[in-house]
Write a structure and sequence with these properties.
Elements lengths: L8 E7 L1 H13 L4 E7 L4 E6 L4 H11 L5 E3 L2
Antiparallel strand pairs: 1-3, 1-4, 2-3
Length: about 80
């Protein structure tokens, strides 16, 4: 068994409804990068769960998407 921690990190984003499908499609196109679920449908909050080892990759993808998918990090 490897020495990697089994910890899971998460973040919550607020995304306009018209952009949710695009964000979900992009995140899911990267196998095993993150799992995305709706945390609060009324407020359009999405929660992403991911391995801490993927934090830099996820941050880079979200930064690139920010130009076409306005989002706000809630937590």
């Amino acid at each position: 068994m490897g020495s990697e921690s089994a910890a899971i990190a998460s973040l919550v984003l607020e995304v306009a409804p018209r952009h949710i499908a695009l964000l979900k499609a992009v995140i899911e196109s990267y196998d095993n990068l993150a799992t995305l679920r709706t945390a609060d449908p009324a407020r359009h909050h999405l929660k992403l769960w991911f391995s801490p080892a993927h934090q830099a990759d996820l941050d880079a993808i979200l930064a690139e998407l920010a130009a076409s998918v306005p989002m706000r990090r809630i937590a």
